[in-house]
Each structure stands twice: as C-alpha cells, then as structure tokens.
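Need ABC transporter substrate-binding protein's 3D structure for a figure. Predict it.
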Amino acid sequence: MKDMNLSRRSFLGLAGTTAAASLALAGCGGSSSEGGSTGGTVGGGTITAGTAYSTQNYNPSSTSSALALGTNWHVVEGLYGIDYHDYSTFPELATGDPKQVDDTTYEITLRDGAKFSDGSAVTPEDVIESFARASAEGNIYVSMLTPIASVEKKDEKTLTVKTTVPNFALLKDRLAIVRVVPASSTKDDMTNKPIGSGPWMYDSITDNTVELVPNPNYNGSFPAKDNKIHYDVLKDATARVTAQQEGSTLVMEMVTADAVSQLESAGCSIDTVDGFGTRFMMFDVAKAPWDNVKVRQAVMYALNYDQMIQNAFAGMAKAPTSYLPESFSNYHRASTVYTYDVEKAKSLIKEAGITPGAIELRTTDNEQVVAMATQVKNDLDALGFSTTIKTDTSAATYAAIDQGDNTYDLLLAPGDPSCFGADPDLLMNWWYGNNVWMKTRCPWIESDEWKQLSSLMQEALGQSGDERQQTWNKCFDLLSENVPLYPVIQVQTTTASWRDTANANGTKIENFSGIGTTGLYFVGSNTVSA
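Structure prediction for ABC transporter substrate-binding protein:
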C-alpha cells in the first residue's frame, strides 16, 4: 500500500562496516543477523542500552520524545507497526491489511486473544478511544491523522475506518501513529507508565533509567526472549561511550564521530545510516525583516555549511539539496539549493532594502546545535547583523517561543519526524501542517505560499505514482524558495552495538542493527550469552 520512502539500496550503501549483511535480510520487526546465533544461550538475559535522550512524558497519544517513542515501540502496539530499518509496515493488533469496502471505507480485524499487560482484552473501544485522543484538537499528531475521518466499531472483532481521501494508499502508515492503550487509561497513567499489548511492558521509569520486562499476555509475532530491556539515560556523549566501551551497555545511541574508531577498536559493530534527522533554521516570519523572503534566503546563503559539517559533525552530515535527504526514494533536487555564497547573501539583503540590526538566535542545548551556533552567529554578523545567542533546554526554548510575543528572531534546533514514518506528506505535515509550528512558532499559515503548499499536499494525497511525485516535487520547490523553516544540516545516525563480538560479560545482541532516526529498535532482538 505504500511507496518505499527510504530505498533498501540506500541503507546497504550507507551502513557501517558490519551492517550490510544484516540489513540485507531485514524483515518486519527487526533485521536478522546472517546465519543466526553461533552458539551460546539465546535470550534469558538483559538488553542494555545507553540512550541519548530523556523525557517525563511517555503518553503514546501525544509524546514526541525520542526516548518515549523508542520505548513505546516495544510496549504499546498500534493496528500496524513500522519497521524502522526500511519504513515498511506490518500488522500488530491487526490480522492483515485493511479490507477495502469502497473508495473511503476499510475494515480491519483485531488479533484473536490480544490482551494488554494488565490482562484485559484489547477491544474495538480501546482502538477508538486511542484514535480520539491522538487526533484531539490541539494534539501534535492531528495534521498527520487528518486523512483518517473516523474509526468505528463494526463488531467485537472488527473496526470500520473511513478516510477523507479516496483510495488512500498510506492508510497503514498513518494508523501506525496511533498506539493503542486501554480506553480506561487516564492522562497520568499514559504519561507516567502506559499500558500496552506489545511484547514488553514497563517495569520502572525514573529520570535516569527505564526498564521493560516481558508482557506475559502477549500473543503476537515477536515475543520477548530476554528477561529485561534496561535503558540508561546518558545524555552526555562521553558517558555513553564509556559505558559502551566497558560493555555495561550492549547498544549505544547517537555515537559521536570522534568515538567511532575508538568503539570499533574495542570490538563494537558500527551502523551509520542516512536519515531525515535535521538541524533546522526557523524564522519568526510575523515580523520584519523575516517577513521578507529575500532576507530569509540571504541567511540560508550566508551559512558556511561545510565548516559546520566538519566542526560540529566531523563530516558525518550533509548540506541539504532538498527537504528530503538524497537517500529517500521520493527525493527531488529542489529548485533552490543553498550553498555558502556571501556575495549572493549580501546582494539579497540589498535587494530587500533592509538594514541588518541586532537579532536573537535561539538554540536548544543539543550539543551539535550548540557547536553550530557559533558558526551561524559569525555568518550572520558577516551580513551586518549583531547576533546574540540564547541557548536553553528544548522545553524552555519552545515554551518561550510559544508565547507568540515575537521576542525571538531565529531558532536553530534539531528535529526528526521520521520517528512517526517517512512518507513525504507526513514529513511535511509535521512542520508545515495546520499546527503550532505554522500558527505560532513560525508563523507562516496566513501566507499565500502556505495556502498553496497546503493545497498541493492535499492534492498529492489523492494521487499515486509519478503524478503524486510530481506534485510533491512542487512542494519541495516551494519550500526551498520560501524557507520559513528549513534544514540547515541533514545528519547521519550512528549506533554502536556488541553484535559480532561479545562484550566483557561475554554477551552479544542478535537480530539488531541501527536505524536512521532517533530511538533504538529492539523488536525481534535478543541477547546471546556464553
């Protein structure tokens, strides 16, 4: 039902030294190690992971946290799941593909005997309530779920799904966003420790650790083989490297470029995958001079991309040539591609007729963004601006911007909506949909250009094949020309694992490889110990 958004070829070509063989055999639920285990005890241990992110919101109907989304993949099923190695979908609570009744009506049957970890049966009412929560007004998921008009109960085992788009080819992908919890769950339940029907269940959650244990009631295709998954929240990169090198973690998220050779020498397998992860620039287009597209373009031409890639990413990133990375199968080289061109930037400032003055560059405390910010300041100051950098946590940064009082000018921050899926409409809707980004943060929603983009995106949903691609190409061109919010750098995601070599405790992880988005994907993975 879907176009493959990240080609298998791109994964194989971009994988690290040991990833290619396992990725070539990837299937729903996790990639397979060639030949399986080579002796030792399979399962019965603890999968240990060093995660780079933290959160206090695990609510499956509203979280955008990299940590919570990643852990919820294992705990809270949807009707469909996404294999994040290639973004293919597979049935979770559904028994198979949706059965099409007419152009906008589908029926989906629930898995026999599916139960939540508290022992209660999964019912159509649970799915309906979970969809209602995820699509409630004001929720960040709304723009991604608008193609789904309703989810209703047909009988005790069957759901009727109606779409706003005839013959909607991306239905399974969008339903995968909706993770199903008991209808009786309260907001506090979902935020602090959600209950799901997946192979794992939450045992404990603190600011420093997250522990999952097997769900004794799980009857799906990917039962847990180990006793526990233990996540250590290690936001400091040095701490993650130390834990991985010593073997206290089997898997390390977000390996920094300077640690790759160190971990390879220790015996770790390294996966480096191109993904949608960006470090983006957002303008407050509600005020001068950012309401002038030429000034926004001038900023994008003023940035020394190569310098940032070397200094902040040690070469493990790329300057964008479109909204999508080149590795995505729906990629189209945009009509406007920004390169470091100071003279062009100055010429655009002159054409705009503005006099650069004092501006505030807000950034989150992401270590790569902080490293980029100094270069961005230098580049903006070279245009005549007097730039002040204001760095804060992500939560504090957006809380300030969401006041909508026009006190900031530019935002430099990380973002990666591909943790929800990878079709171009979803990736554009995250930032450019009818939501807080376009209404308050940017805010671009009142412009004729946004209305044109929205119309094109809606048109593409009703198309397929080359016709749809051509419409998406128009979207990519429009975004590149207007840049209200646009990638500055597209990053590669690097993961380390004790996969081919055992750690100091004599343990390896099997059926695991890194993915191109934030989070760690252990569905189908297990330990092998001596």
